[in-house]
Protein 1
Amino acid sequence: MPRKFFVGGNFKMNGVVDSITSIINNLNKAQRDPNTEVVIAPPSIYLLLARQLADPQIAISAQNVYDKPNGAFTGEISVEQLRDAKIDWTIIGHSERRVLLREDDDFVARKVKAAIDGGLSVILCIGESLEEREADKTIEVVTRQLNAVAEHLSKEQWAKVVIAYEPIWAIGTGKVATTAQAQEVHSAIRKWLADKISPEASDNTRVIYGGSVSEKNCKDLAKEPDVDGFLVGGASLKPACSKQGSMS
Ligand code: PEP
């Protein structure tokens, strides 16, 4: 079965009730490609609103979750609370959290494990800094980040993971990876899945690209064989892109 194209919109810390309502109303009205899975990730305070407003075909994702079930963890949200609010997905390991909030590989991996054990699906973000790319360490970095998660998950649990390759130098910078750069890393990730997890995981896991994706560049990126979709930040107020390059 071919991998279903996946488009995630990460609103980050943007939006208020009015603007989020209007984005969702527009998405509800848009002619969406039935072959594309659409998931939006508003700030946590608007998750319930988003779930109430969005068409049931549109999934809602948190931008983060904590690895402990409940307790004295001020400011955090648990997997159970997300499930209670009918939120099916969470982003984990976004570079803004890895860098600004110093989340390390093991913490990210423990959150992925807690999320999946509790019934969520996960958009796992990985990617290298500009310095690491220039030092030719891209594959080493993404492999390290993936190995950390593999320490915690069973082979079957990878069915609940979408891997988002997001080079840090491309996020919010307007500097998008070339199609060749994206394909090279995506195919290395697929090989890692085959070697370390299973041939099924390699065939079935969606590997999506994030980093200054826009209506202009998504069509070419989508043509690459190992690009199964996008995680879109800044442009996520705009229409989504399908594998065929059509806008929905
Ligand atoms: C992101 O936040 O995941 C992202 C890819 O951002 P942008 O599209 O703005 O680069």
Protein 2
Amino acid sequence: MCGIVGYVGGQQATPLLLEGLARLEHRGYDSAGLALLGGTGIKVAKRAGRVRDLGDGLPKRFAGKVGIGHTRWATHGPANDVNAHPHTDARGRVAVVHNGIIDNAAALRHRLTEQGVELASDTDTEVLAHLVAGSDADTLEGKVREALAEIEGTYGLAVLHADFPDRLVVARNGSPLIVGVGEREMFVASDLAAIVRHTTTVAHLEDGEIVTLTASGFTTARDTTVVDIDPEAYDAGEHESFMHKEMLEQPAAAERVLRGRLDDRFGTAHLGGLNMDARETRAIRRVKILGCGSAYYVGQMGAALVEELARIPADAEAASEFRYRNPIIEPDTLYVAVSQSGETIDTLLAVQEVRRKGGRVIGLVNVVGSAIARECDGGIYLHAGPEVAVASTKALTNMFLGFALLALQLGRVRDLSIADGRRLIAGLNRLPEQIQQVLDQEDALAEVAGRLADADSLFFVGRVRGYPVAREGAQKFKEISYRHAEAYQTSELKHGPLALISSEVPTVALVPADELADRNVGALHEIAARRGPLVVVTHEDVDLGELDALPHFWQRIVVPRNERELDPILLTIPLQLLAYHAALRLGHDIDKPRNLAKSVTVE
Ligand code: F6R
């Protein structure tokens, strides 16, 4: 969602800010803007549309060495030029960019209007500019502090003031901000992607911090860290999209999440970051997984792993719903928040709800130092590397592997035998190569994806372990191809949706070689009898009867066999490629699907 980038130093800020904003485009936005501090005060340029349009339309003399930029995802007021950030006070002496939501904006707008202030936009953010301008404090930091004392809500923000031309002030509460330290220059951004090409020395601000940045430094006691990220990770390179690149990175990403965490001697996993000793681990009576969207579906796969390997009752719930039903928080339940970005507000609020009621939460998070990671009592970092595409692929694979590691560790302090532990470890070690074998089938998958793309509506079906895979497959398909795709338990088709099956409505069916394979094949015959086109993702040794001979049997996709508990992830990979190639065939902007943002930071 919204993005912030800021600069103070010896270079012209405009190209740096525009480049930073372009690097934030993947997060989703509908307008963009810049404010610069030059010799004549503050200059602002902003408009609805793309960052490129903003850059092309800048006035000739748009110079300055201190500046802020923003990409906006409309919340208060429509996406238009006026509502785009930065926002200024009436005299144009203060400019503000802001991520988050000011909950008491309506009351503040009312008060300001009564005081005679004319508000130019419909946004919550604009009140901040007026409050900063109205403060009597001597320093810019003091003015921002006074303004923020009036605010209820969440923010990551950056402020310029014409009376303090050598600095910008940034502040955070619930919306991430990272300060980047360069050579006699400082950056600030809501996402590392915006500044990583210029510096990898960063400090993650904490909630409640207000910090002044000047070319020579910044006012925080926080230690800086050097992030170990190759800036190239933020380039698509020879790939036509980030999603394609990230799907192909999955074998390497999978190796990273497993590295150093498997212990063959004891047939277990080592997850030091959980911050729980064996006694505490044994005391867990239930596992509750919380995530949103695809992370929720992988959470369902994770719950199945925990139940199978550790024999602990486990389930997953959409984090966006969790706190609204006044959940019962039990002391012997382990809550697990799962998130790629670590910023998803629904998941963060669910974590806070659990902690507020005294529950223990661990995080399965990809972005190091993110809000969810910091809010949890411990966790497992996913090490998938930066994920830029909106459609999550490699992070989800690593979430699944994170759950496998967790289930293994929970199982081995309970009744999972050492032999079974070693069997799982061997299976996990085989996975990166097997994922590669599935990726190698891309050409064949692209062909059948082209046929699926022609359908207006399709089903994804699976049972037990395969059902969350079907949900994730349908999710991926609809979010980037914009085709209606519905996931169902194969066993439930006959209780209703079979009525929709026809030669126009294909079904992608998951039929692993497990105890349900025969029943699954039986259900497919019912689809075939109604001339429903079939694409079956299965193992080599599954006998499909005469199904493959039928004219509307479109394709059998074979994935390698592993331990059956680990089947879901190998079944998921071909569904990513199907969604991707369907979207490509339809000519969609794969990395920026319509109406979607990479990190959903508002409720
Ligand atoms: C789907 C997708 C979303 C995210 C969801 C949670 O491809 O990317 O459904 O999975 O918004 O995001 P994170 O994992 O960042 O919490």
Protein 3
Amino acid sequence: MTERLTGHTLLISLIATPIRHSMSPTMHNEAFAKLGLDYAYLAFEVGNEELKDTIQGIRALGIRGSNVSMPNKQAIIPYLDEVSPEATLIGAVNTVTNIDGKGHLVGYNTDGIGAMEALKDEGIGVKDQIITLTGAGGAGTAIAIQAAFDGAKELRIFNIDDTVFSNAKETARKINENTACQATVTDLADQKAFKKSISESNIYIDATGVGMKPLEDISLINDSTLIRPDLVVFDVVYSPRETKLLKFAKKHGAKKAINGLGMMLYQGAAAFKLFTGEDMPVSYIKELLFKV
Ligand code: NAD
């Protein structure tokens, strides 16, 4: 036990399964220590079956907030007292606050904010931009909704014809109804449309997880003529740090080839602000955890 833990220490939890690999406990605890905040952040193996009891526990123990990951991001919603507008549209929550430990639980989703902040960190804004996005699962939906809220001009979503395809359609419908952004969905099998879309886009985002094990030898772009010096390529994967897509984009001279580390850092920073009201010392955490 470190010296800084006392009888007054406030607890923040992370509830998901599997979760032991997560960088979030280290990220938040290092940030608490750096700022001298009397909080501790612990991960708990919690699946859907334990969720109801866990929520009761959060309320009973006055746990001040929680991050939520798979498989609980959607399942937690019915147990909350309030859900933020963006989390409602995304249909998933990754952060819950319990201000002053009074048991009023509010759900947020900081994944999309994390992605937008990661792009900003590289000098890239989404306002008025045309974005091609592959993947409309948890990460893709959060990115699509946030980019639309942040003023993207067009979001061209491409998804394989699997169970997520209908979610992609639903996400596009919500964006078209609630924002000025124009969203479309196309089957990724239509490679002609996919290539045309990328050739007209400012930013290409891959939110599929292709490029991560066991798909580390796959990239959804293999045609070097699609990589232009004014195209930003962003892959949400951070392990490996450089996916096949990012290597390809770099090799063929893309404007930027950005991995998912920044998204992961900034979704955490946005959650940290909601938990504590303080700004996470991101430069310090970046250097400590990511050696950048
Ligand atoms: P998900 O299962 O909800 O969605 C996966 C998406 O990829 C779906 O749209 C699916 O149709 C598509 N897909 C799956 N296999 C494909 C293939 N072979 N070709 C093309 N499309 C395919 O998953 P998720 O929770 O959205 O996570 C996706 C990735 O995002 C994972 O690698 C995850 O680690 C990463 N992620 C990163 C961060 C971050 O902070 N950097 C945050 C959340 C998720």
Protein 4
Amino acid sequence: MAKLQSIPKEDNYLHKGLRKQLVQTLRNKGIKDEKVLTAIDNIPRHFFLDPAFERLAYEDRAFPIVASQTISHPYTVAYQTQLLEIQKYDKVLEIGTGSAYQACVLAEMGITLFTIERQRELYDYITDFFFIKKYLNIKRFYGDGFEGLPSFGPFDKILITCGAPFIPPKLLQQLKPGGIMVIPIGDDGKQKMTKITKDKEGKLYKQEMGDFSFVPMLQGKNSV
Ligand code: SAH
């Protein structure tokens, strides 16, 4: 599949109208955080997809990107972001950059984002992408999300956007007291969305939400 475009694409009235409808769909499905809805309204999702999917970009669907990976459903992006209870100036770590759509939604909310991708092909896929250059608050890393980024932590919030077999202990260590981690936990194909809260004393609380389906969180880097 072709690289994401380095030349700016058009965001016309049709796209903007479809985006307003998508935001309404997300409201109807229970997303209430206005900062999340505004960020989704501001980000042209069709920029992140192959031109073949342009007309479908604003349906609540996941789509294939490169390397057998997917750009998550807008509802999943909105739901995970809402659970993070984002505050301006938060320092956030994301595992699984993928298309960087989720990364841009977070960056649009005025935080500093550190994001890790384990697949070289995907990491390179967005390097020249014109839209991501707008966000100087996104720092991208090629690496293994199980390791996190110890030298940049601790983080106020940690978001995992792939299905994790367990809670990576190093990520828990890199979560600040008072911080929130959102992580889908489970086997390939089906995961329980889980919210972990660390209180000021470092005590952990776990809250399980609904079922979701993510590509798996895999160990190690892939250099192909
Ligand atoms: N947030 C992305 C979703 C991408 S799908 C988006 O908005 O498009 C999940 C991504 O997690 C894939 O790109 C996959 O390669 C990546 N991934 C899986 N295991 C990982 C790991 N251990 N470390 C970092 N990224 C990982």
